[in-house]
């Protein structure tokens, strides 16, 4: 091959679009197989947890839009879609992947069926359980072309999640997940595992889930009062599920005589920080809980 042909061949290699990657086939939370031709570069994320973990993997530039429920500070500059977006709103963004959780997929079935009919890949991924978090990060890495970053992130997550509890024996903690009914967290939920990692002992560990797979467990005021002797601290998660504040709880005549209330150990934490599987929040949230549980106030006999 002479020099001219060699140079021509080299230029053709540079000009011909290169294959971005092998096809990616995933079975989603509804049992459907979804095949992408390669890593997605325009992702519409309709669940804040997916958004935050993609950002943690360095895939922020791959996000075409997110949900209105996402943290404004984390997604500044990204289009924010309403809880019930329209087909046109999503299609106009020209996504190559839409990530959604099954709760929304089931509630808005016609929307996602229409998107699929338009050739948009829709993948239903639910928030991962504690022991599934590392593999979930690796899946997001495959989907976004951040495999190496995801491998490092999963190792970091495993290291964080396998730390020893902050205090031997644990501080007796009751989490108010829903103030109106005094529901708490199911023992295998993300919130319950966060409490344990921070050195908390969940006094409601025996509470049964509201329904199969639910993170909520009914408890009620009578059972709470009966557990008073075991409770050193009360934590109220603040968010969509619960609007009751620490002040409101402490001033409730039913609970004002409780040990934790009299000791001033009633705290508020963000629902997103304690209940959302997010690598961006994990370390700081556990540290914050540890500080709360180590808060030695006036001892109440």
The fraction of residues assigned to DSSP E strands is: 15-25%
Overall pLDDT metric: 90
Low-confidence stretches: 1-20
Query: What is the approximate shape?
Result: elongated
Q: CATH superfamily name of the largest domain?
A: Nitrogenase molybdenum iron protein domain
Q: Radius of gyration, Cα only, in angstroms?
A: 23 Å
Instruction: Give the number of DSSP strands.
Output: 13
Largest sheet: 5 strands, parallel
Name the CATH class of the largest domain: Alpha Beta
CATH architecture of the largest domain: 3-Layer(aba) Sandwich
Span of the ends, CA to CA: 92 Å
Q: How helix-rich are the residues, as a percent range?
A: 25-40%
**How would you name the oligomeric state of the polypeptide chains in this document?**
single chain
Structural class determined from secondary elements: alpha/beta
Count every helix, treating DSSP H or I runs of 4 or more residues as helices. 13
One letter per element, helices H and strands E, the order comes to HEEEHEEHEHHEHHEEHEEHEHHEHH
Order of strands in the sheet with most strands = 5-4-3-6-7
Quote the CATH topology of the largest domain: Rossmann fold
Count of folded domains: 2
């Amino acid at each position: 091959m002479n020099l001219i042909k060699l140079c021509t061949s080299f230029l053709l290699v540079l000009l011909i679009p290169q294959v971005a990657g092998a096809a990616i086939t995933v079975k989603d939370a509804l049992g459907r197989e979804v095949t992408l031709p390669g890593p997605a570069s325009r992702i519409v994320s309709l669940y804040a947890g997916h958004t935050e973990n993609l950002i943690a993997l360095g895939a922020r530039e791959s996000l075409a839009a997110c949900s209105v429920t996402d943290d404004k500070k984390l997604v500044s500059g990204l289009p924010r879609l309403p809880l019930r977006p329209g087909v046109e709103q999503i299609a106009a963004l020209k996504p190559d992947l839409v990530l959604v959780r099954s709760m929304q997929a089931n509630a808005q079935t016609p929307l996602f069926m229409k998107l699929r009919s338009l050739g948009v890949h829709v993948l239903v991924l639910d928030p991962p359980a504690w022991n599934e978090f590392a593999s979930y990060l690796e899946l997001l890495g495959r989907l976004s072309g951040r495999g190496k970053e995801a491998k490092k992130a999963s190792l970091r997550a495993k290291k964080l999640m396998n730390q020893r509890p902050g205090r031997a024996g644990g501080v007796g903690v009751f989490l108010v997940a829903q103030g109106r009914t005094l529901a708490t967290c199911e023992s295998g939920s993300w919130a319950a595992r966060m409490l344990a990692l921070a050195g908390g002992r969940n006094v409601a560990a025996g509470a049964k889930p509201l329904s199969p797979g639910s993170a909520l467990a009914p408890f009620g005021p009578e059972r709470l009062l009966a557990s008073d002797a075991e409770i050193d601290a009360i934590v109220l998660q603040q968010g969509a599920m619960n609007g009751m504040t620490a002040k409101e709880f402490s001033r409730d005549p039913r609970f004002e005589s409780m040990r934790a209330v009299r000791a001033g150990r009633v705290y508020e934490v963000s629902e997103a920080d304690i209940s959302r599987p997010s690598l961006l929040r994990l370390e700081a949230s556990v540290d914050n809980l540890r500080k709360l549980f180590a808060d030695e106030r006036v001892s109440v006999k």
